[in-house]
Amino acid sequence: MKVAGFGYRKGARVDSLAEALALAVEAHGDIDCLVAGSRKRGAVEALGLRRNLQVKLVDEGVFKEISTMTQSEASLREKGTGSFAEAVALAGAGRDARLLGPRMVSKDRMATCAVAEVAEVPWL
């Protein structure tokens, strides 16, 4: 199963997340569900409604323990992880998940999307 996790800047529109998701789908194939950080979820929930995909919220407190492919200095400074989207995807997919590649970035640079894969998502 493939899980898409998102990171986005304040003021990002759902269209920015949709664009980042489209890039991820193009690279990795169809997505089974979306994941958002518990404190940053509104746009992801709106995208889930638009795409008819279930949305899972994950506790952002675990992100510092998650190793990511991307190592953004800004993300490390502000969120304590190299990539918020990659950490969200891995946390949402659960144990034994792996990233399918680095995060995808929307053209306006307001949103990122990363895809993690796992044999079975425990909450679906």
TrEMBL record:
- Residue ranges occupied by any CobE/GbiG C-terminal domain in the UniProt entry: 3-116
Which InterPro entries does the entry mention? CobE/GbiG_C (IPR002750), CobE/GbiG_C_sf (IPR036518)
Gene Ontology terms: biological process: cobalamin biosynthetic process
**Family annotation (Pfam families):** CbiG_C
Name used for this protein in its record: CobE/GbiG C-terminal domain-containing protein
